[in-house]
Structure formats: C-alpha cells, structure tokens
Write a structure and sequence with these properties.
With about 190 residues, the chain is α/β, with parallel strands linked by helices. Helices cover about 35% and strands about 20% of the residues. The strands form two sheets. The chain has a seven-stranded mixed sheet, with helices on both faces.
Length: about 190
C-alpha cells in the first residue's frame, strides 16, 4: 500500500500536531508502509506557541516540511490515484488552514469516492465532518479510547481520538498504531 500523510503546518495551534505526526510515521515504519507527506502551498497566519498570539504569514508547505522528513510534496504535484490510503494527523491548523481549500477537500472526496481508506486523529475528525457530514463516526468516537480506534467499514474511515482522550504520547502512539493496522486489514 502507498500512503499519503496530509500535513497542515508544524505545531498544534497553527499546523499539524507534531506528536501525532511522529506517531503516524512510527506506525507506518513499523508496518513497512511506503508513505509520502503532502501539504498545500498556501500562506496562513502563524501562531507564536509561547504567547499564543498571531504572527507573520507562513507557507503551510514550508512549515510542513519541518515534519516532512525531507520528502514533503505539494499536493498539486502528485497524482491521487497513485495512493491507496490517506492519513490525517490532527491539529488546529488543519481546521483553520484548510477550511477553504478546494484541493484538500477534493483529495478527501477522491479517497471516499474510490473507497480508499482514510484515517484521522483528534481534530481530524472535525475536519472530515466539515466535508463529509457532521455525524461522521459520532457515536463511535464518543466511546473509543485513546489507545484504540473506531471505523465506518462502509466508507472506510478510521479514527483514533489521540489527545482528545489522553495526555500520554505513548497512548496516542498505541491508538495510531491500532488505526494503521486496522486500515491495512480493511
């Protein structure tokens, strides 16, 4: 399987949650998955993570490259048909930076329409609900623990709550691992 990892910058407040991205990479590496981090090249306001004040405008692609392990690509430069699954780490930047992005919404819809697996964590479920419907995995998400995942087998959408239900990086890693494994088996 070839996987895409959608990044939205670097840092919980204005990008992707760093810990969730790292847990994603660890799980994908554990299962010897071929993956590519991607982001859109758009300018957005940054957040000073010490003061929580808005800062200068920065490129989501450039900021995502901090987490991209040297392999980051602009979403506009890839062919979605070349990939089998999409992983979306959480972070407030996902909701803010990609709120009006048609290419990111089209990416999600492509995976749904092709019945390809999509996995997300934490704020990623809110992002998907904004595109696919507000009740997506609503009951399942309320019950699932941080070390596990839930899914909608019909749409092949998977979710682990990550930091919504724990403050433990280890528990988040276990939940992401469980989700990646479930996606591989779906």
């Amino acid at each position: 399987m070839k996987w895409l990892v959608l990044l939205a910058g670097c840092g919980l407040g204005d990008g992707s949650c760093v810990e969730e991205v790292i847990a994603t990479y660890i799980a994908l590496d554990k299962y010897h998955c071929d993956y590519l981090p991607i982001a859109e090249n758009i300018l957005v306001s940054s957040i000073d993570h010490v003061t929580e004040q808005r800062g200068e405008k920065r490129s989501v692609l450039v900021e995502s490259a901090r987490l991209g392990r040297g392999r980051i690509r602009n979403i506009r430069d890839i062919t979605l048909d070349d990939f089998d699954a999409l992983l979306i780490p959480g972070g407030i930047g996902l909701l803010v930076n990609y709120r009006d992005s048609d290419i990111i919404k089209d990416c999600v819809k492509h995976f749904v329409n092709q019945k390809k697996a999509i996995g997300t964590m934490c704020a990623g479920i809110d992002f998907l609900r904004g595109i696919l419907g507000v009740h997506l995995l609503e009951e399942e998400a309320a019950k699932v623990e941080a070390t596990s995942c839930c899914s909608d087998s019909k749409s092949r959408i998977f979710y682990t709550p990550a930091f919504r239900k724990t403050q433990s990086c280890y528990d988040v890693m276990l939940g992401v691992d469980a989700m990646v494994q479930a996606m591989m088996e779906s």
